[in-house]
Amino acid sequence: GLANATQIGQTYGAQVDTLGNLYFCDNYGRRIRVVPKADGSVPFAVKGTGETVVPAGASLKGRVYRVLGNGAAGEGTMGEKAYDAMIREPYNFHIDADGGLYLAEFGNNRIVYVATR
After folding, report:
1. Cβ-proximal residues to 116 (8 Å cutoff; 6+ apart), any chain
2. What is the pTM of this model?
3. Could you give all domains of the chain from N- to C-terminal order, each with its CATH number?
4. What is the pLDDT of residues 41-72, one digit of tens each?
5. Residue 78 pLDDT > 60, yes or no?
6. Which of 15, 66, 68, 104 allows an S-S link to 92, with CB 3.0 to 4.6 Å?
7. Is residue 3 classed as helix, strand or coil in its secondary structure?
8. Quick one: which of 81, 72, 77 has its CA closest to 28?
9. How far apart are CA 109 and CA 36, in angstroms?
């Protein structure tokens, strides 16, 4: 949804891909999120309460998208769509050269790989 209307809590593992998109773990939301590159900057931050903070003079035009996780805590199953997966306490991740995403999932004590191609 719109960046200024997206609730986010306890973020970990921010990373920018080769296209300039910002990815991060939303631990409380049990999701991996992406903020697509629009103009080369991400003009907002998020407090620990999930409140979006916009610096004075900045406009918030971007969107925040869910990449992995449906928001429900659980172990999930292999083979399901990444968007619908249940994950617990996403902690960190890495995007490989092929665009695949490795997720360190603290709550389920596992590493999850999501192929994007």
Report:
1. 98, 99, 100, 101
2. 0.54
3. 3-114 (2.40.10.500)
4. 444 444 444 444 444 443 444 555 556 666 66
5. no
6. 104
7. helix
8. 72
9. 29
